[in-house]
Specification:
Strand content: under 5%
Low-confidence stretches: none
CATH class: Mainly Alpha
Helix content: over 70%
CATH superfamily: Rhodopsin 7-helix transmembrane proteins
Structural class: mainly alpha
Shape: globular
CATH architecture: Up-down Bundle
Mean pLDDT: 91
CATH topology: Rhopdopsin 7-helix transmembrane proteins
Largest sheet: none
Order of helices and strands: HHHHHHHH
């Protein structure tokens, strides 16, 4: 299982690194009023690359040993994922909101992300990670459940917003910019898969509490597969959308 997980997240790291490079390559060609969306897109790809690297079991074990604290890499990966989601939300906000409302909308999403990060840090220190892991295997541990539910609830909310607005943008762009619309559709699909990932893990936690959980091996296989698909779709979607916007006439969005 560790080999498969490493392969999945290693591939995700490569895809997100490539997506970051593509976003950086075309960053200077966009209109200045969407500078925030450009920076958020680059930040999303870069932090997702970090999160993917930290989720590779061999790298995670090395970091945990160096830090002298079990699950340190998992915790840092989750925090990076929160930044990833927040960056995507800010990108979407800059694309879809009128100028007077951008600052307020961005501030709300930054505040939510900051609260989630604060809660995750607090709940990580409350969990006895010396004896437990932050995984579904320890669903009966209250501290682990609180940590996972906080992370997964935020992931579901952010993934839902990203998917809805990405698909709306794709519909608006489908006639004039088909390549960009395709990229946005793929990114929107990634958001949908992220919601499915969060719901599947939350569903397992709830089922475990009431004594009707499905086999742990199934959940352990499902979770990295869904996470990998979500990351891959978003990374590919952002890259295709960026190339698509730059391949055609001067874009209206960043």
């Amino acid at each position: 299982m560790n080999l498969l997980t490493g392969l999945i997240f290693g591939t995700c790291a490569l895809l997100t690194a490539l997506s970051t490079a593509i976003c950086l390559r075309f960053a200077h060609r966009h209109r200045p009023q969407f500078r925030l969306a450009r920076r958020a897109r680059i930040a999303a790809s870069a932090t997702c690359c970090v999160a993917s690297l930290l989720a590779i079991p061999q790298i995670a074990d090395a970091i945990d040993n160096a830090a002298g604290c079990n699950e340190t890499a998992c915790h840092l990966s989750d925090l990076s994922a929160v930044v990833f989601f927040a960056s995507l939300q800010i990108m979407i906000v800059d694309w879809t909101r009128t100028r007077p409302y951008v600052r307020t909308a961005v501030a709300v999403r930054l505040l939510l992300a900051a609260v989630v990060i604060g809660l995750l840090v607090l709940e990580f220190h409350r969990a006895d990670t010396t004896n437990v892991d932050l995984t579904s295997e320890y669903a009966h541990n209250g501290a682990v459940t609180h940590y996972l539910v906080t992370y997964l609830a935020y992931s579901a909310i952010a993934g839902l917003e990203i998917s809805v607005y990405s698909l709306r943008l794709a519909l608006a762009a489908r006639r004039q910019r088909r390549a960009a619309a395709t990229g946005l559709t793929i990114a929107g699909a990634g958001g949908v898969i992220a919601v499915a990932y969060a719901l599947s893990r939350c569903g397992y936690l709830i089922a475990a509490q009431v004594g009707h959980a499905w086999p742990l091996r199934l959940q352990d296989a499902l979770s990295p597969a869904l996470a990998g698909l979500a990351i891959g779709c978003v990374a590919i979607g952002l890259a295709v959308a960026t190339i698509g916007y730059n391949a055609g006439p001067k874009p209206e969005n960043g």
